[in-house]
Amino acid sequence: MSKILEKEFFSKNVVKIVLDAPEIARSRKPGHFVIIKMGEKGERIPLTIASADAEKGTVTLVIQKVGVTSDKLSRLEVGDEVTDVVGPLGKATHLENVGTVLCAGGGVGVAPLLPIVEGLKKAGNRVVTILAARTKDLIILEDQMREYSDEVIIMTDDGSYGTKGLVTAGMEEVINREKVNMSVVIGPAIMMKFAALTTKKYNIETVASLNTIMVDGTGMCGACRVSVGGKTKFVCVDGPEFDAHQVDFDEMLSRLSAYQDQESAAYQKYLQTVEA
Amino acid sequence: MENIIEYLKAERAQDWRAELRKSMKAKERTSRERVQMPEEDPFVRNKSKIEVNIGLTAEAAVLEAQRCLDCPDPTCITGCPVGINIPKFIKNIEAKNFAGAAVTLKETNALPAVCGRVCPQEKQCEIVCFYTIKLNKVPVAIGHLERFAADWERNSGKMAIPETEKANNVKVAVIGSGPAGLAAAGDLAKFGYDVTVFEALHEIGGVLKYGIPEFRLPNELVDTEIEVMRKMGIKFRVNFIVGKTASFDDLKKEGFQAFFVGSGAGLPRFMNIPGENYNGIFSSNEYLTRVNLMNAADPEFDTPVISGNKVAVIGGGNTAMDSVRMAKRLGADESMIIYRRSEVEMPARVEEVKHAKEEGIIFMNLHNPLEYYADENGRVKSMKIQKMELGEPDASGRRRPVPIEGSEFIVDVDTVVVSVGVSPNPLIPAALSDLKCTDWGTIVVDKETMQSSIPEIFAGGDIVRGGATVILAMGDGRTAAAGMHKYIQEKIKAN
Ligand SMILES: Cc1cc2nc3c(=O)[nH]c(=O)nc-3n(C[C@H](O)[C@H](O)[C@H](O)COP(=O)(O)OP(=O)(O)OC[C@H]3O[C@@H](n4cnc5c(N)ncnc54)[C@H](O)[C@@H]3O)c2cc1C
Ligand code: FES
After folding, report:
1. Domain B26-37+47-156 fold
2. Which ligand is nearest to the CA of A46?
3. Region label for B46, one of left (φ > 0), alpha (ψ between -120 and 50) or beta (otherwise)
4. Which run of H or E residues covers position A147?
5. Between chains, do A86 and B426 touch, taking CB under 8 Å as contact?
6. Dihedral, CA of residue A33, residue A245, residue A183 and residue A234, to nearest 10
7. Nearest to B87 by CA among B200, B170, B158, B7
8. pLDDT in tens for each of the 276 residues of chain A?
């Protein structure tokens, strides 16, 4: 059981919650995630830790409403409890000074990117961050990102904020402008796929953090498996970060859709019950 | 060893046992047929969660107990990995002292209701029963009787809470709540320790909960045992991964003096053949966890599961049998086993294979998958399989399956469950760089004490043996508890 200490909506569908989870707060490092479950009948879903405060014993998660569990979570109020929270899971990000790092975050992928940007900056890198979203309302954590980035570039699909265009356009602009030693991309699988293709053209080492379907998160089931360099890897224990140029994103996209019909039917049913 | 033999002799010499032996002629005992375990109808049970074996009635149990000859040299005990005093518990049943039978079981077996259901008795105690080895007859139904006595105790509502020694206020940690961890925790509590069990998942029980299905081992039964353990003062912390949520050093700082690692053989293996990552292809762990732990088949629960019409399960172990029978229960028209050896070599319990056949499971023995094909949505639609024949025996002593060239053919399937074994859980070895492990990733321990290369860390169960059995895991847990007790007491004395 973890109590919700703070809650804030970033937009209609994106919410930040701060959880009381002292042990996880103490042990977690950038790149780690947790698995949460809501209620006795809930499913287990992974959520990356956006930030944590070891002293206060808190962990911050940023959640986009996409299905039953994330929606239920977004409806909890300060003082409510999340039934099960386990973590920190996965391998921590390898943070070192490589020179200039181009970080690209799409949608709620910006949340897990935040601690990495912070860590890379503290390790002495020049950090250029691109925040991309469909539209202005969906750009999140901009101020926090500015605090740890040397430069922040905003890209929106509809041009309602920053530059109009896709994340890859922003990335190419930076790459053409200055020497980039490494890139980190986190966001929807399709965005990571194209971001990886972009950096591949320029031979820039790129790390992607994968958000596959998970059950246990401890390496026990293989629900999270992906092909990396032709080998099957378990994202929960071997990742979540991998060499983006080796990841089979098409397979990952297909696997992410495995339960699409069931999930959206369940979500529709759920919405009817809560809105009734 | 000497002591044990003396002890068994002394027990056998007790008046009540001598009386019982005289009460019936050996001939009368041996001429009786073995009881049949009553079972639910195959075509009713293969659509429900209901437990397949109904359990013996008291009358049937007593009749079966009378078949046991109470041999002077009870060979059956040598077949039991934890050395249950088998004749004593069976004679208690014959004497209608069912509570006494349950107490006898619990002297050496922490979870008899579980073992009576899942142990491979036909390869352990029953294969060395006097009936099997000397009379060439079907053995006494030791497993069914074990289950009977344990169930009787539970249903009587008078579950004995084992006595514990005076609390010594020494904190010890048990990592993992499968049979190894539970057995270790039970004994450590009896020795008077302040025991905390840490479990990574949100439920206690390890494989007993997430792996073995309801129709073979009802969860409620595991929960009853856990309740007893709570009453003994054992604390449980779920959602806690040792090495992740807190390190060993963190726990030492909190005062834990010694650790038992029973973290199991979590990692499912795949065959690394083309197409294995298509949708609709699962590891048996994922398939069973979704249904058993997460209740995916119940629409009230949020976790989904794909339940196909044509399901192929790859493998021949208990996990494969559980998966293939589960698929039937989730509504598959065709649910088949694809196993590369023949039925003789199958590692699954004989009873499970029998039950599977009764339930309409198709067995494609001597077949091996080569490749999977998917539809335009990435969902598996068919697979290529190859026929096999048996060659020379391999390292495991079983005849090696050899592919028959040119025998490949395609079968339509929409769901595949890969059940070809597991590797040891890497979480603990990854958290302790000094811990000595084998190349396979199992933890190296001293066989007598189960102590690892790090003195305060002990280990047992699947994390030491690779994939094993419930009873071996429990036996390890108990050996380790004794080893930890000795280690801690010596350390206390030395200070
Ligand atoms: C489907 C299936 C059917 C089976 N059928 C039979 C059968 O009929 N008969 C039989 O004898 N055997 C059977 N087995 C094998 C048997 O279940 C295992 O040998 C036995 O459970 C091993 O026990 P264990 O305690 O070592 O590990 P497990 O039961 O695997 O328990 C390990 C536990 O440790 C937890 N854990 C791991 N790492 C950590 C950590 N770092 N911190 C906290 N917790 C951790 C895990 O989450 C898990 O709950 C079956 C196995 C399966 C999967
Ligand atoms: S989520 Fe189960 S193995 Fe990764």
Report:
1. Fumarate Reductase Iron-sulfur Protein; Chain B, domain 2 (1.10.1060)
2. 2
3. alpha
4. helix A142-148
5. no
6. 10
7. B7
8. 899 999 999 888 889 999 999 999 999 999 999 999 998 899 999 999 999 999 999 999 988 888 888 888 889 999 999 999 999 999 999 899 999 999 999 988 898 899 999 999 999 999 999 999 999 988 988 999 999 999 999 999 999 999 999 999 999 999 999 999 999 999 999 999 999 999 999 999 999 999 999 999 999 999 999 999 999 999 999 989 999 999 999 999 999 888 888 877 888 888 888 776
| Ligand 2 mutation pick, A236, A238, A255, max ligand atoms within 8 A of CB | A236
Closest residue to B239, CB basis, from A41, A86, A225: A86
Please check whether residue B426 touches A, CB under 8 A. yes
End-to-end CA distance of chain A: 28
CB-nearest partner of B279 from A38, A88, A255: A255
The CATH number corresponding to A2-89 among 2.40.30.10, 3.30.70.260, 3.40.630.30, 3.40.50.1100 equals 2.40.30.10
Closest residue to atom 3 of ligand 2, CA basis? A219
CB < 8 Å to B210, chain A:
220
pTM attached to this predicted model: 0.93
Chain B nearest-CA residue for A216: B201
Tell which atom from ligand 1 comes closest to the C-alpha of B462.
26
Any ligand 2 atom below 6 A from CB of A21: no
Contact A209, A186 (CB under 8 A): yes
Test A221 with B277 for CB contact under 8 angstroms: no
CATH number of A100-256: 3.40.50.80
Token pair for B50: 């209901």
Task: List all residues of chain A from 73 to 132 with a beta carbon under 8 Å from chain B.
Answer: 83-89
Q: How far apart are CA B127 and CA A138, in angstroms?
A: 68
Token pair listed for B360: 């309409």
